[in-house]
Automatic annotation (TrEMBL):
InterPro entries: BphY/WalK/GraS-like, HATPase_C_sf, HATPase_dom, His_kinase_dom, HisK_dim/P_dom, HisK_dim/P_sf, Sig_transdc_His_kin-like_C. GO terms for molecular function: phosphoprotein phosphatase activity; phosphorelay sensor kinase activity. PANTHER family: PHOSPHATE REGULON SENSOR PROTEIN PHOR. This is histidine kinase. Its EC number is 2.7.13.3. It holds the Pfam family HisKA. Keywords: Kinase, Membrane, Phosphoprotein, Transferase, Transmembrane, Transmembrane helix, Two-component regulatory system. One of its GO terms (cellular component) is plasma membrane. It catalyses: ATP + protein L-histidine = ADP + protein N-phospho-L-histidine. The keyword Amino-acid biosynthesis does not apply. It comes from Anaerolinea thermophila. GO terms for biological process: cellular response to phosphate starvation. The keyword Transmembrane helix applies. Residues 848-1064 form the Histidine kinase domain.
Amino acid sequence: MDLLLQQITTTYAIHIPDGWIEWTLFFAWTVALIVLISRYYKEEHILEKNPINWVFYILLTIICSSLFSVDAFPLKFHFFPTALQGSSDFYLMVFQAIPWVAAAVFGKPILSVVLAVSGGIVFSGFHGHTVFTILLISTIGFLFNILLRKKNSFLEPYQNHPLILVSLVIIAAIPLFYLERFASAKGGIALRLDAGFHDGWFFYLCRTIELLLAGILAEVLVQKDNKKNKHTSLNATVRLVSKQKKTYHLVGLFYVMLLVLTVLWNGSRAYALEKQRIDMEARLQHINLALTSSFTSNAIRIDQLSKSALLGGTVSEMNTVVRMLFQPIQNVDEFYLFDTHGSLVYAYPATSEEALNISDQEVWIYQDVLTENTILGSFSMAEPANMYMSVLYPVADNEDTVQRVVLARMDIYNNPTLLPISTLLSEYSENGLHLEFVNTQLDTHIPWVEEMDHEQEISEVATTTYVPMGLEGWGTQLTLDKSVFLTVFFEEIYPFFLLTLLSSILVSRFYFYRWAKLEKSLVNLTERFSTSSNSNANVSLQRMNTYPDSVVSLLDVLKQIFQKLELRHQETEMFLDLWHSYDDADTFCGVLEDALRIFAGQDSIYVRLFIESRIGEETTQLYTHAEVENIEDYAYLNEQILALGKEQDQLVVGNANRFHQLTRALGKPFPQAFILKKIPMSQTRSALLFVAYGATQEFSQDFMDDFLGKLDAFTSHLVEIDQLQQWLLEKTILSQLFNDLNFPLFVFINKILLYGNKAANAFLKLDGAEEHTSIGKRVQQNEIYNIMLKNYSQDHSVLTRETNDGMKYEIDILNENHPEIGKITVMLLKDITREKKREEITRDFVTMLSHDLRSPITILQGYSKMLPMVGELNVTQQDYLEKIKSGLETISSLVEGILLEDRIENGIQISSEEFELYEVLSEIKTQLESLANQKRVSIENTGIQPGLTLKGDRILIKQALYNVVNNAVKYSEMDSVVKLSVQTKDDMIQILVQDSGPGIASIDLPLIFEKYYHPKGSGNLYDKQGGMGLYISKFIVEAHRGNISVESELGKGTLFQINLPTINTIN
């Protein structure tokens, strides 16, 4: 008994109000409850005849309110008395509400309220609640008594059913649950609102379960009494007066508003918490980077120390070597040297081994350093005012055997190199963010606690984020104080909270008037069918009298629901296994065969899946889930099943003995029923599902609906997995093909390297060990990455680049936007070093040959002009001389074209001067006058007036215009006209050259400006020409920021259009 009393005195405590908000709510709630109770009992004239029995009932209530408790996470059972709130948020007192509910049902309303108050006092004291919990339980007990005894047409049909009344009380008490959590919470308005809208749901659920348990017990007792007395008070029809309807509507709208505010609070809270979590992760990344950088730099400094001094030097030698770690900047605060037995060999600053404080973390890491012979780090707190980051460095001899271990400490609070981090973490602590150094392997947590606030503790945690550092299991963890988070969160959501509240009120007002009209219409409609409603009243009464059977039926339904959920869970796990094994053929085969069991049912023999591939030679893969052992005896049916699948998409046969398209083999088993279903997968692949049964079946419509539903789910996953496997196969094949290419190939997605073939690795000079680790980094360091970025906006571009070692590459870049993947960039580098060398040799040879031909051609032209001076020539001689002149002129034109082409290829120098277009065209007309007279062709000028000037290279522009006009005269018909015209449009001069020649075929038009191109659709007129004139003209015009185009049809002549800017910026 003494132990029991001692346990009660140590666990019993009721929290009284603290602060004016809590006291105001407490007095308002208490006064309102007392006034309502007194008014109700006076109006109802309720008196207790034997209050002496209250002592017994109150004692019973005390026992029930603390006798049997359930802690659901994890499930634990506790007996009187104990405190549960610290262990779980989900706990309930099984018998807490039973005494006052029973007292109310058996006609003792005053006693019921007294018991509710007593039970609330006991419950709140043993479980650390406040006085508001007492008020909540008392108010709920009072509401239940009102609903049970109130003379009301709406409540009267249900007053003989306590379970229904308890449910109504629960609904009516929802705002009181919110109010109790709001008043019981400690802190500001944000913490109180969060307690009501977010944290209180487990509390609401537990109190609801307690009330429902009491309601069920009371319902059983009342129904037994009703059966004994053979009467019931449930009426068939309930009508509400207008005033009651308005009240219920207003209450309903208030509940809707409460629901909207709850959803808003929780949704916004989750979003804000997720944003805070992402921000905390980013902060941890920066902290880890700073700490690991300091760790690495100190490890490098220790590595640079003289090993001979550390292994066998004197104290003065060691002081000289180690002093560089402390001067001129104090990178390390403490330096210790230990031997392999853990004895202190050297310390700087000097200290004795007895005064040295080594943490457990450093001891564990020290042992790992000796074992692994590697550099490791540790965090520890030797004293409350000192947090250390330690570098443990093994010192090995020439045989790579660890002889000594360096322990270098950096005081995170006071080290000057870590001062920015210390300041930053102090600022985090002030803002509610608390840092811990965590070692997941050692299960160690070292909090960041400064000397001035080491006694502070986090009351509640809003969220925690952990990021590993990469130092042998160490990482950092940030914890956000809940009060700080909610304060900031409430400041952000406050305007939206008020706006939602106002909007809910306005919408509720609109709804109220709309619903009043709709309800009136529904009442009128109901009255029309009142006769049929009255006829069904007896049926409703019979159902109410069989309440326990309804409970059994409900349990059966719940059992079926849980069975379906279990099946659904198994199917989900099966599909996950399929996805996890798609890239392993052997594992996937076993998982797929096991997955076919979802189609196996009662009397099924086996389920077989055929997957056919029609690429090249037709192949079939076979997967089988067997329910019998002799499954191979059914293999003879496979070819017949495949043949049936080609003819039918679906077959459902309940009696296979009457189905003659499957033939039974002698001495072999045969299915008595089967289902065959074709599964389309792709254009080249299809599947066939065959389910065999050992007995005849009657496949109902419900069975087939369920079967096809399973098949649809299975098919969707199978098709996607099969497509993924085909893509994986294609990727393997393409990767092999790309690796066989001799040209470097790079594939980028959104500017990030996805793939590079073997030639690409050779181009980047990567060895075999670096291929899978360094290619992405090496590409970004190479010039080709910048080339890709410069041409990223163009769909297709081709350019030539020469590397530092003299190799020349033609780079082909293709960019394409994919709606799901992003922008795909493919770069192909073709080695054109030999081709370019060959072109240079050929060009040099042709240029040299053209220069050597120039002098003989000039001499021959001179002699051809002197021949008539020797004597008069006859007609034949004159004809021969003209042919000689024409041939020399052709050769001269070809040589000049080759030389001009050489100038173009090597970068022609273009001068800039102003000149008159009229003069240039007049000179061209004069030069071509002889040729025009021979063909009786007239050259006409239209719109060409003096004073029209151009700016550019006069000689080159004249050459370009000459080539076009010369072609027009040369290929015009006899006795025809070549028209030259000039038009001005804005800042451009348009020169038109129209001839009446044979025209150019449409297939030749896009190519006539190509070098050495001879039109194939225009007869033999171009056969003797060099094919350089129009190429040179196009180059000169475009170099002057102009353009040239042509329009022509066979038999209708040709029109050349040259556009040149009046004020030219030479290209």
